[in-house]
Amino acid sequence: MRSPLVKPDPKLDLVLVREVDVPVELVWEAWTTPESVKQWFCPKPWTVTECEIDLRPGGIFRTVMRSPEGQEHPNIGCYLDIVPNRRLIFTDTLLPGFRPSPNPFFTGALQLEPTATGTRYTAMAIHGDEATCKNHEEMGFYGGWSTVLDQLVAHIKASMH
Amino acid sequence: MRSPLVKPDPKLDLVLVREVDVPVELVWEAWTTPESVKQWFCPKPWTVTECEIDLRPGGIFRTVMRSPEGQEHPNIGCYLDIVPNRRLIFTDTLLPGFRPSPNPFFTGALQLEPTATGTRYTAMAIHGDEATCKNHEEMGFYGGWSTVLDQLVAHIKASMH
User: Fold this and answer.
1) What pLDDT is recorded for position A19?
2) Is A104–B81 a contact, with Cβ atoms under 8 angstroms apart?
3) Taking the complete model, does pTM exceed 0.90, yes or no?
C-alpha cells in the first residue's frame, strides 16, 4: 500500500475542513470552470476579474484579483494532480509547463468526499517553512477560505434554481 | 488541440538531444529503477550512493551523490508527469507531496522517442531565470549530462549481455 500523498504538517500547513450541502460534482465544476471561479474565488467586495484554466498537470491556473480600490493582484501557477470530483492540487511554485516560479508561495490541495447530505470539503495550503505558513495564517487564511467557501455554496445554490 | 506542455526557452533552458542505439524501454527502466540509477546517474568517479523512487506525481525522487573525496551531495524532489517509455518530468522545486522546497533549482524533463535504431533522447533542464540557467550551464550541464548518457548506454549494454 502506498501512503497517502498529502499529509498535513501542523507546523507548515493550514487546513480547512467543512461539510457543505451541495454535491461534489458541482463543487468540482465551480473550482474548474473560469466563469464560475470568477463568481466566488475571493472574498467580496474583492473580485476576480480574470481566470484562466488548462486542467492538466502543468497546465495554467491563473487569476487576477481586484481590490475595491481597483488595485490588481495577479496569481499564476499550474495544476499538479487532477482526480475529477475528488482531488485538485495546484501550486504557484511552478509556472505553466512546470517552470520554477520567481515568487513561490504555496501549494493548494482540495479534497472532496461525497456525504449523505453533500460534500466533505478539505482545503489545504502547503508551505515550505514555518514563517511562510504563519504569514499565510496572519493574512487571514481561515476567515478568507471559509468566506469563499460560503460564496461557492451560494453560487452553486443560485445556479441550481 | 492543446499545445505541447514543455517548450524550451533558449534563455532559460538547457537541452541535450542525442540518438542512442538502445531501446526506449531500457532507457526508461534505467531512469526509474533505483539500482540502475546508482550505476550511471552521475559522472564517474563520483558515485550515487543512495536513490529513492516513488514513481507517481508528487512521489519522491531522491539521490545522494558522493565525490571521490567522500563529500556527499543530497538531492530531493518529486515527480510531476510520468508517461511510461515516453516522458518523465521531475523537479527539486517541490519536495515529496508537492511541498515547496527551501532550495529550488530546476525542473528536469526527459523525453524519449523510438527510432529505427534505438532512441531519440531529449533531456531538458528548465529554470526560472537566466542567472540560474547560466549557472547550470557553467556547472557543466552539457558535458555532465552527455557523460551520464554515455554511462547509461554502457550500463544498458552491459545488462543486455
Assistant:
1) 98
2) no
3) yes
Which value does ipTM take for this structure? 0.92
DSSP state of B28: H
CA distances from B18 to B15, B40, B120, B146 (A): 10, 17, 6, 9
Taking CB atoms and an 8 Å limit, are A98 and B7 in contact across chains? no
Ranges under pLDDT 70 in chain B = 1-5
* Cβ pair B126, B108 in contact under 8 A: yes
**Contact across the interface for A98 and B80, Cβ inside 8 Å:** yes
Looking at beta carbons, which residues of chain B come within 8 Å of A57?
Answer: 57, 80-81
Per-residue pLDDT at A4 exceeds 70: no
